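Dear colleague,

Thank you for sharing your sequence with our group. We've completed the structure prediction you requested, and as agreed, I am returning the results in plain text so they can be pasted directly into your records. Please verify that the sequence below matches your submission; if there's any discrepancy, let me know and we will rerun it promptly.
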Amino acid sequence: MDRTTDRVTNADGTRAVCGSVDSLSPFTLATNLAPTAAEVSISGRVSTAEGRGVQNAVLTLTAIDGTRRVIRTGPFGYFRFDDVNAGETYIVSVASKRFAFARPTVVVVAADELANVDFIAEPLE
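Please find the predicted structure tokens below.
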């Protein structure tokens, strides 16, 4: 039960909380802190079936609300999306001008760090 009657911040930065209680029993001062979403990363590699990394493949991370982030793979085919909200579902898709993909899209739940979101590239015919 909230028995707060006033909150005061003094000029020197000290703060005081005033309240009305009907006993001297132990009590606790608490505040409602909204939980913050932890941030994780989603990473992986785009490579050929022979294991060669695919450079400059375009990876798109799409959140449920429709927001999108786009990055490119590095020289060895690795990619990494940082600052991803934990506990949310995302769609990761890959595209390349030089390759096709049997599985160009995956759905992931970022419950924790995801380090093996890999895509296998096939030569365009």
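Summary note from our side: Strands lie at 4-9, 15-19, 39-48, 58-63, 68-72, 78-85, 89-95, 99-101, 105-109, 119-123.

Kind regards,
the structure core
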